[in-house]
Every structure is written in C-alpha cells, then in structure tokens.
Specification:
The protein is about 45% helix and about 15% strand. It has about 160 residues and is an alpha+beta fold. It folds into two domains: about 60 residues, no CATH class; about 60 residues, no CATH class. Strand 1 and strand 2 form a beta hairpin. About 5% of the residues are buried.
Length: about 160
C-alpha cells in the first residue's frame, strides 16, 4: 500500500492505494483499490471510503460518498413518511411518477393541516384521510372533529371468543 498526495485543508486525512490481502478477496478482486480517510467537520466524524476509481481527487471521492449518503437518507425518509414499500415499475419514469405522486400527496396533506390549523401530525391526518376516502363528510369536519374514543372503551363492548 502506498500513499498519494492530497490537500490536508479539505478534511482528507489519507489517500492510499493498495490491493486486498485476503486469500479469497485477492483472487476475486485482484485490481488496485483506493482508501480515502476523511474527517467531516460538520459531524465531527472520520470516514473511510473504499473505491476502485484511481483517477479522481480524494476530495471528489469524499463528496461523492457524502452525496450518496444524502440519497440513501432521502429514500429512507420516503419509506418512512410516504409509505412506498415497493415500486410499481422498474423504469426511471415509473419510479419518478410514483415518488412525485407520493410527495405531492404528502405536501397537500401538510398544507391542509397547516391551513386548517390541525393539532395532529401529517401521519395522523393521512391515516384519517385513508380510512375515510369514500366517506362524504367534508375534509375540514373530518380533521377538526377528531375526538375519537379511547380504543380500550371501544373494545369493552366487544364479545369475547374463547377457543380454549
């Protein structure tokens, strides 16, 4: 393994090129590999990046990985908030349409919640709207009269089923 020149003022701590040393690893990937160690001042953390791209600068390697992490966080947010569990299509256009549709729906619900000054989370509003899609009750009435009984009170009237 040998070190390459790098600009220390950018947060890069080291830029090294070498080969994988394990028996199976070196057989399966005999090419050179690059390791860039980077210190991020914003998060106060040090990161190690591995790449096979030997031609870009170490700062570019760090920025590419940082941008990729932002994409990963975006898709995590999509899964958590927009409830997209799987994509309907595999083409770029299909994925874009599905993500944009979900984003538009989420933004519209957030705007409705803000305009009506509803003291509920966007997730709760989405749940109420999802349950009452075919209901003819006006949206404002649905969302402002959210005085639901406690679940325990509702379950108390239900008959018990003893199977054992």
């Amino acid at each position: 393994m040998y070190s390459r020149k790098y600009d220390k003022s950018t947060g890069v701590k080291s830029d090294q090129i070498g080969r994988l040393s394990g028996f199976y690893a070196s057989k399966q990937y005999p090419e050179k590999i690059r390791r860039v160690k980077f210190y991020d001042k914003e998060t106060n953390k040090t990161f190690d990046f591995l790449t096979n791209n030997l031609y870009i600068t170490s700062e570019q390697v760090a920025n590419l990985y940082k941008n990729r992490w932002q994409v990963d966080l975006f898709f995590k947010w999509i899964k958590q908030h927009l409830k997209i569990k799987a994509f309907w299509g595999t083409s770029e256009n299909a994925v874009r349409i599905q993500v944009y549709s979900a984003l538009i729906a989420y933004c519209l619900v957030a705007i409705i919640g803000s305009k009506l000054k509803i003291d509920r989370t966007t997730y709760e509003i989405l749940q109420v709207l999802g349950i009452s899609l075919l209901d003819k009750t006006p949206v404002k009435e649905l969302l402002t009269n959210m005085d639901y009984k406690d679940v325990k009170e509702q379950v108390g009237n239900q008959l018990k089923l003893n199977l054992f």
